[in-house]
Amino acid sequence: MLTDTELLDLLPLKQKDFLAKCIGRKLVEIDRFFGIDLPSFLEGGHFTEAEYFSYNSGAVKFHFEGNLIYVLDVYGEQLSIVVLPMNIESNEFIKIYQL
């Protein structure tokens, strides 16, 4: 878990210079990373299969031309959008879905 100071440093407001690099660049690809698989998402009957993509939370990785990558996520304890300082990849715990 992040401290309040670490979290504040990851908020988009503190990352303006970093985020400004994508202005004027072409967005090439978007990856969505989900922490919950479809069967688990459907448990309890609260959601339908059609809602999986829009209601399932997880990080989003934006690929811009020039090999520029930004990763945004929701920091659950604070419900804040944060800019992650690292590149993430899919693994056995994270499913990746590409648009």
Provide an overview of this structure.
A five-stranded antiparallel β-sheet has the order 4-3-2-1-5, with no helix packed on it. The protein has helices at residues 4-10, 16-20, 38-42, 52-55, and strands at 27-34, 60-64, 68-75, 80-84, 95-98. The protein has one domain (4-83). With 99 residues, the chain is of the alpha+beta class. The longest helix has 7 residues, at 4-10.
Q: What is the percent of helical residues?
A: 10-25%
Tell me the β content: 25-35%
Order of helices and strands: HHEHHEEEE
Write down the overall mean pLDDT. 81
Count the domains. 1
The largest sheet is: 5 strands, antiparallel
Helix/sheet category: alpha+beta
- What's the number of helices? 4
Instruction: State the assembly state of the protein chains.
Output: single chain
Number of strands: 5
Distance between the termini: 30 Å
Tell me the Rg in angstroms.
15 Å
- Taking pLDDT < 50 over at least 5 consecutive residues as the criterion, the unreliable ranges are none
Globally, the shape reads flat
Strand order of the largest sheet: 4-3-2-1-5
Helix and strand topology:
Layout: H1 4-10, H2 16-20, E1 27-34, H3 38-42, H4 52-55, E2 60-64, E3 68-75, E4 80-84, E5 95-98
Antiparallel strand pairs: 1-2, 1-5, 2-3, 3-4
Can you describe this structure in just a few lines?
With 99 residues, this protein is of the alpha+beta class. The chain is 21% helix and 30% strand. The protein starts with a helix and ends with a strand.
